[in-house]
Amino acid sequence: MAALAELRALRSLCGVALFLTQLYVLSGRAGSLMTTKHSQPQSTFAKSLTSTSTNTPYFKAAESTEIPPYVTKCPSNGLCSRLPPDCMTCNTNYSCIYGKPATFDCKVKPHVHCVDENNHEQENFTINMTCQFCWQLATTDYVCTNSTNCMTVSCPRQRYNATCTVRDHVHCLGNRVFPKMLYCNWTGGYKWSTALALSITLGGFGADRFYLGQWREGLGKLFSFGGLGIWTLIDVLLIGVGYVGPADGSLYI
């Protein structure tokens, strides 16, 4: 009887061991399945990140191929030293001595091509110029606007505000466009010699005043016979010294 009881206990222990073994195997399979399911979204997300990072360069903005507007002012394959200032960038030295020759290191801007005296293409070169500001240049080195409402025959002599621009081939320090006060110096085509001759010969009839465009004074001299000669003599002196000039304010030629 004791042997039979031990046999039954051994069978129970084997059954329990078998149940625990099956339970362990089943739990291991379930864990592997869970791990696989969780790993798949991560790998998919990783792939999406990888594909996004790989395709990123395709969203970069294309480099601009537009030609800058200053290129139209720059002669192609010309001498670098003769390029207009808009075509180059220079290291300006403001500590140079005024009126003395100065040398500046320059570099051509993008899309600009120039050569040296040996016809070799250059990017870096030097410019020789006189150390002075643009507004200190000679009047022949810049162009200024003209005024049509300018009276040249006046005392004191009138001035007007003009905007001046330095010529392309001239190099200087500072702004190349600057304001300047200029004397009124335009002419309407009236000759001083003709006005003086008319004043001497036919001044009593107001011919000199009519010629200069001063119709009221001309009629006054005509009907007063030159102010009985006194007005005629005064006009000869005034026209001779240049005090009386054309009615439009222009200069004699």
UniProtKB/TrEMBL annotation:
Q: Where is the TM2 domain?
A: 189-236
User: Could you confirm whether the keyword Transit peptide appears in this record?
Assistant: no
Q: InterPro entries from the xrefs?
A: TM2, TM2D1-3-like
Q: Which UniProt keywords apply?
A: Glycoprotein, Membrane, Signal, Transmembrane, Transmembrane helix
User: Topologically, how does it sit relative to the membrane?
Assistant: Multi-pass membrane protein
Give the primary localization class: membrane
Regarding protein family, the annotation reads: Belongs to the TM2 family.
**This chain belongs to which protein, by name?**
TM2 domain-containing protein 3
The species this protein belongs to is: Nyctibius grandis (Great potoo)
